[in-house]
Design a protein that fits this description.
- This protein is mainly α and about 130 residues long.
- The protein contains five helices and no strands.
- Helices cover about 80% and strands about 0% of the residues.
- It is found in: Cell membrane.
């Protein structure tokens, strides 16, 4: 390995460690504060804040973020491979499956909305 390759590898590892540290900090904050927000989302907000305040330049993490984005497909391959196993089922009954997913999602949203509305009304009635 030449010096350029070692330098590039060291930079890549450093960027990945910084991204991981921000993610872990977000997870820790989520746990400490008992927020219902995932640590990854808090970590992204911290990273955005660091970019906005000028503490970190986006170019400083470009190589590490690029590697993670390029390899992100690996996390989705198992789900995609299962679709290949059931391709015939999807072709024959795919519209029914989508209809059930759509109707059930709509029903969950409606029941949630009505439940929240009922709880708010009961709470107001209880306060009065």
């Amino acid at each position: 390995m030449n010096a350029f390759t070692l330098k590039t590898l060291f930079r890549l590892l450093t960027e990945l460690v910084v991204i991981l540290a921000i993610y872990l900090l977000g997870c820790q904050l989520s746990t400490w504060l008992a927020w219902p927000i995932p640590g990854g989302v808090i970590g992204m907000a911290l990273l955005l804040l660091a970019f906005a305040l000028g503490l970190v330049k986006p170019a400083a993490l470009q190589m590490g973020a690029g590697l993670l984005m390029a390899e992100m497909l690996l996390f989705f391959i198992p789900a995609l491979m299962s679709l290949l196993d059931y391709g015939g089922l999807l072709r024959a009954d795919g519209w029914r499956i989508l209809l059930v997913i759509g109707v059930s999602t709509l029903m969950v949203m409606l029941v949630t909305a009505f439940t929240v509305e009922l709880v708010v009304r009961l709470g107001k009635r209880h306060e009065a």
